[in-house]
Amino acid sequence: MTWHLDGQTTAVEEALAGGAPQRVGSFRFYFADQRWEWSEQVQQMHGYAPGSVTPTTELVLSHKHPDDRGQVAATIDDILHTHNAFSTRHLIIDTGGQVHHVVVVGDRIVDDGGAVVGTHGFYVDVSTSPDQDVVTERLAEIAENRAGIEQAKGMLMLVYGIDGDAAFNLLKWLSQESNIKLRPLAEQIAEDFRTVRHAVTAQPEFDQLLLTAHTRVSVP
Asked: What are phi and psi of 80, to 5 degrees?
């Protein structure tokens, strides 16, 4: 996945713009100057009016729940040194004091010369997601009764607690950024999700499978 540092609107921002407000949003983090960019949805998720805040690492950490702040700080330090993709689940506290359970999944930003210059990805507010037993049951039902893109949409809606538009927009973003056609990518995501639906640790596995599905698609 290659992004250009030209200041133009990115594919992820365009793809996620139609998602449910405050539930799904994008971010970028540039390593050299530790510069953060939050989409309007991520700003709202933290309790800010769109355009009213310029995120910094200090601000990002200040919104983490005290129980998770150390973990997130360690994750940021790790990606600064290793430039790896990552996923994390933790609690944030918005400006009104409300606690949100979020998933943050990030992949590398690569410039035209092939150098890794940052990370980009998305936040999903999963505060009202169903428990794992319900996820297991519903994933089986979706796998049996839907096909292709609709399967993947249904699985994303269930796992991340988002609506159909946001789920489809996530699929479109992943397709655009990986240059893989939507249908085979969706079918791969659905197949990946089925393989871990019975795992106790399935939630973190879903994050990594979603982020790396394009590497397992067989391209004719």
From this structure: -65, -30
Q: How far apart are alpha carbons 22 and 124 in whole angstroms?
A: 8
Please report the pLDDT score of residue 74 as a whole number.
Answer: 95
- Angle (CA) 190-173-140 rounded to 5° is 15
In this structure, are strands 86-93 and 99-110 parallel, antiparallel, or unpaired? antiparallel
Task: Specify the DSSP class assigned to residue 19.
Answer: S
Q: What is the spatial order of strands in the sheet that 99-110 belongs to?
A: 35-38, 24-30, 116-125, 99-110, 86-93
> Between 56 and 171, whose confidence is greater?
56
Higher pLDDT, residue 6 or 17? 17
d(CA 71, CA 66): 10
CB half-sphere exposure, 191, CA atoms < 13 A: 13
d(CA 36, CA 28): 6
- 207 or 68: whose pLDDT is higher? 68
Question: Positive or negative, the Cα torsion across 111, 103, 47, 130?
Answer: positive
DSSP strand E in 170-213: where? Answer: none
The pLDDT assigned to 34 comes to 93
User: What pLDDT score does 12 carry?
Assistant: 44
* Structure tokens given for 103: 């998933």
